Amino acid sequence: MIERIFITEEASKYPYSFEICEKANIKPEIIPDEDYYRHNIENFLKDEVKEGKTHLVLTVFKGDFFRKCPGTRGKICCNYYVIDQTTNCPYDCSYCFLQSYLNFRAIRFAVNIGDLFEELDNVLKGGRFIRIGTGELSDSLALEPITGFASKLVDFFENYPNAMLELKTKSDNVYSLPDLKGRKAKVVVGWTIAPQKIIDNEEKLVASLKERLDASKHVAQKGYLVSFHLDPVIFYPDAEEMYIEMLEQVFALHEKLAWLSLAGFRYEPKLKWYVENRFEKSLLLDGEFIKCSDGKFRYFFPERVRFYKKIAEFVLEKSPRTPLYFCMEDRAVWDIVFPKDYLKEQKMGLLF
Ligand code: SF4
């Protein structure tokens, strides 16, 4: 995982930077700024994507941490806000858009979390209901054992019971999270899951499906809400059976989820090079794809609908109170897959 930690001169004024190095048991390298890393370290890496994921740059972020999830053009969007405090991730997934999206290869972690909390306070003190996650440009818990950041965030949300924080992960780094029983913070731990065969071929360094499910049981006992994301759904041979079997395991543990999302694999053309050159075992690009209105490639519409219908039928029967929704899908898909007025059902009020 993390092999080198760099601290920018500005971040070296924050004791938090050194706490992280101590927990990681890594001697930090002080650098003038992020540009120094880019020109003097990153430029000399043999495999910048792979090696960048083993480098942690502790820095001070000057922009806005908080923003609305941009969604994608022409698709139905759920009301979600994101916190961009960490960028990039030590895990390595074939389908990860960060491979072609990022132009800074190390994991960038902002240590000025006091500024983040101040910004969040301004947004949340108004009292309106809001769903927020940290897992848009990183994995929310991948670095938890050395940063403890999610735990600090959970404690911060204690003062804002109107908000719902989601920590999205493919790890099982939940055992150090604070106990939430009897507390006011509303926190959801959300696992992105896939059948183990897909994890084996497409995701590196992550927790196994069983480890993720065990962790979900643990946090539920500690007073957290639990969500799952089938994102991206990848059409392997026998995908339907594999996904249903996995969902059987999910609902054997949880009668109702905070939410469950479904999103088919989609990609921008730039991602192809990374999949073909970095993931020997990947079957990701074996399917047939069509270019959609947002410029991304997706599985053909009838295939997506057929698959989603199977999953939706299963979930709506097994756990009728779980809000099931699509991430970045056409209205037409919603209309075909879900019963009429599904979006108006009470359980969906939380999301839309
Ligand atoms: S866990 Fe998420 S952020 Fe990390 S490599 Fe995989 S897809 Fe990307």
Q: What does this protein structure show overall?
A:
With 352 residues, this protein is α/β, with parallel strands linked by helices. It has a single domain, classed as Alpha-Beta Horseshoe (pyruvate-formate lyase- activating enzyme). Helices cover 34% and strands 21% of the residues. The strands form four sheets. Strands 4-5-9-10-11-13-14-18 form an eight-stranded mixed beta sheet. Strand 16 (289-291) and strand 17 (297-299) form a beta hairpin. Helix 10 runs parallel beside helix 12 (301-318). The mean pLDDT is 94. It binds iron/sulfur cluster (SF4). Iron/sulfur cluster binds at residues 89, 91-93, 96, 98, 138-139, 170.
- The tally of helices reads 13
Sheet-strand content, in percent, reads 15-25%
Strand order of the largest sheet: 4-5-9-10-11-13-14-18
Shape: globular
Write the layout of secondary structure elements.
Elements: E1 4-8, H1 15-24, E2 29-31, H2 34-40, H3 48-52, E3 55-59, E4 66-68, E5 81-83, E6 86-87, E7 92-93, H4 98-101, E8 107-110, H5 113-124, E9 130-133, H6 144-147, H7 149-157, E10 163-169, E11 186-192, H8 196-202, E12 203-204, H9 209-221, E13 225-233, H10 239-253, E14 259-264, E15 266-267, H11 271-278, E16 289-291, E17 297-299, H12 301-318, E18 324-326, H13 331-337
Parallel strand pairs: 1-2, 1-3, 3-8, 5-9, 9-10, 10-11, 11-13, 13-14, 14-18
Antiparallel strand pairs: 4-5, 6-8, 7-12, 15-17, 16-17
This protein binds iron/sulfur cluster (SF4).
